[in-house]
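ARCHIVE CARD
SHELF: 3
SLOT: left
DATA:
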Amino acid sequence: MEDLSDLAPDAILSGNFSVTRQPEVYTKHINGVKETYARRLSPRKGSVTRSQNFKRWAAARAVFGSLPGALPTAPATVARPRPPIALQAGMLAAIGLSDAKFGRVRALFGGSDGPIASLSELRKARATLLRAPANEVHVDDSGAHRSNLRLAVQDRLGQLCTAGLFIERPVYDAAGKAVPKTRAFTIPAEGETTFPLGTPPENMLDVHLLIGLDKGGSPSSVKVVMGLHNQSSPHRLGNTLLMSVCPAQSDRYDSLVGMFAPHTAGLLDLHRRGVVVGGQRRAARIFVVGDWLGVCGALGHKGPNASLPCPICLGTKAPSQRWHALDMAFGSI
């Protein structure tokens, strides 16, 4: 018998197939009926599904895998870079996508081989984000409040700066021209006032923070929201920072005092220490915004019953020489 190594691989396969795969199979039943089963070749489909194509590749590799050059290799796929899992968790939370819909989207992008993390990885990332100091929340009689306001603001501004989305907002002088910011902010010594006039100078590096109220929902609640004006579209819901959620039926001043009380120390800390953005410490320039009733309630203003109906206007309800002298002496809120 000649050596098997001298035989060609095609001859070995042909010999095996001729024995194991007969062209016809004969079967005889108990009643004496004989049946013949013959192999019929059907044309291969031009296009098949992804799973069927994988089955064909696996079957072909099982048969021809040991034969070098017998089977063309599949084209190499370029691995897509996977975004950070924390970023994926934040995007899904902003979109409000359910777990079932997320599973379909993940399957569309390749499942476990794609760039999207699994549900278990996202749950771990969410838990890690919630345990971060900037996201700590405490609950009292008035509602749920963010514990460390300055860290939360600094963390969000740092993300904007890292992504290249931080926008410098200038302060304009009386002539309407932007004042160049050339002065750095330093934390004042203990016992010294932060700013002599109560607000940062026009030429100081700063960030613009907006605090507003929004009442609504069912059951009714008041949301205390902080906006970061140093970005594009600062009033979009996803670009704001939720400070508090407090159940309330009205936004009267006595109720708003309890809602703002947990943030008094945080706002004073922001005013005194500022925030660090891109390695530079900046002053915090804080504005109270919202609808007219909400702004009046937050400032303790009487609204239509006040002598100065608008909290930022010098126009009195009943102009007279006496009120004119008071306006010049004390101004408005």
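SLOT: right
DATA:
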Amino acid sequence: MNSLVCTFVPAHKVFYSRILTWVAVDTMLPVQRDYYDVTNQLWKTMTFDQVKKLDGVNPPLHIRMYDKQQNSTTDVTFSEVHYMVILPDTIFDPAHLRETIEVRWWRPADAAVTNSDKAAQPR
């Protein structure tokens, strides 16, 4: 694959001394990102795949972070992605935090809804 490499060097090297991102030339989407620790040793590698066009946006639906120093992997898979969704302003208001946590509107549409949850659904 033909790719470009972009380098980011943080002003304050608390966790990472530099971050290298490989970007696909044809799509300009990131395909891999390498994180280097403060001693400039490769610490983590993040890969992006399963890109799918959703609502005119091309997000990766699978992201893998490999921690070389700990020899561990974390996988994140997105199964329901929606863009241009109208969210109520109250979910960003600290005064309504308890209500926002209790509301289940963010649950996938095919999840079961109990009678106690029906009143909490957005209108």
